[in-house]
Specification:
CATH class of the largest domain: Alpha Beta
Number of strands: 15
Number of domains: 2
CATH topology of the largest domain: TIM Barrel
Structural class: alpha/beta
Strand content: 25-35%
Helix content: 25-40%
Shape: globular
Largest sheet: 8 strands, parallel, barrel
């Protein structure tokens, strides 16, 4: 099986929309929408390649860019090794310089397009925050619990998992959802008896047990789906199911599970290198660990009390 080395560049406008282009019908994976880019020529560097490709395809001159990561995408007859770049600034107005169709799209409209498999996961990864707060699983109606919830919203947490081991009042959940909407925070439900049809949520988070019992993705692609995993096999199951991100734990030792052996940074890195969807490291994570988690391949860190 041959390996193709290529690069793509992610452009984002002031309306938080991303640029995608439609592959010509006669090309490999023709008529699919993709992130603009192309193959590396000869010995040129990855950064030079993406600058050249975007000038040829979109008529723009890239002036500042940031490398994100390499990801291998396996097809029936080839492996494509993609280098992803975030295009921070450029000169010119993008257009289909090679006659291809281009569009600026919102992250919530991805399911309306026939996308290459790599596009959805990468664009979602870009939009997910670096911190994922998980609420305490008990005491939801107490003043202390609500104070913690409000404090995290006030300090800019943009992704929250509402975790509960008992049935919660619908009006209570809706009030939390309204608070989150007003601050542009995404609320995911990890509650018992979840139906995946609740209107007062941006998505759901499934436990490891729920993950292993599912045979297909339980919600539509326009909602966010996260999953808890503890090893590579469970992470691969999550990928097969089509979840949008995983929370891998416990990376470090925790006070709440003193008898559980932590995975450690090395194992966490191995998992992050084997799968292509965003990963949050969970278990013993504190703000000081964020940069190391990202260095080891994570999107960010998750936690209940220490974020």
């Amino acid at each position: 099986m041959k390996t193709v080395k290529a690069v793509v560049g992610i452009l984002k406008n002031d309306n938080n929309e991303f640029l995608i282009s439609k592959r010509h019908q006669k090309k490999f994976m023709g008529d699919y929408w993709e992130i603009p880019g192309g193959k590396i020529d000869g010995t040129e560097s990855h950064s030079d390649a993406i600058k050249r490709e975007l000038k040829e395809e979109l008529g723009i001159v890239v002036t500042d860019l940031s490398f994100i990561r390499f990801i291998n995408h396996n097809y029936i007859d080839r492996t494509v090794c993609l280098g992803y770049f975030l295009i921070n600034s450029y000169k010119g107005n993008p257009y289909g310089a090679e006659g291809q169709q281009i569009e600026w799209i919102n992250i919530n409209s991805l399911n309306k397009y026939k996308l290459l498999p790599s596009v959805h996961e990468m664009l979602l990864s870009i939009t997910l925050p670096e911190t994922y707060w998980i609420t305490p699983s008990e005491g939801h109606y107490s003043g202390l619990w609500m104070k913690k919830f409000d404090e995290n919203i006030s300090r800019g947490i943009k992704l929250i998992q509402l975790r509960a081991k008992v049935q919660l009042d619908d009006n209570f959940v809706n009030s939390l959802y309204i608070k989150c909407k007003s601050s542009e925070t995404k609320l995911l439900l990890n509650t018992i008896n979840k139906t995946y049809n609740e209107s007062c949520a941006d998505g759901w988070h499934v436990t490891t047990r729920e993950l292993l019992s599912l045979e297909s993705r339980p919600c539509s692609k326009d909602k966010i789906l996260g999953a808890s995993v503890h090893n590579l096999d469970e992470a691969m199951k999550a990928v097969e199911l089509g979840v949008d991100f995983i929370a891998l734990s416990p990376v470090l030792s925790t006070k709440t599970h003193p008898g559980t052996t932590p995975l450690g940074w090395k194992v966490a890195k191995t998992v992050s290198e084997r799968i292509h969807i965003p990963i949050y490291f969970l278990g013993g994570m504190k703000p000081k660990h964020l940069n190391k988690a990202i260095e080891f391949g994570a999107k960010g860190i998750a936690g209940v009390s220490s974020l």
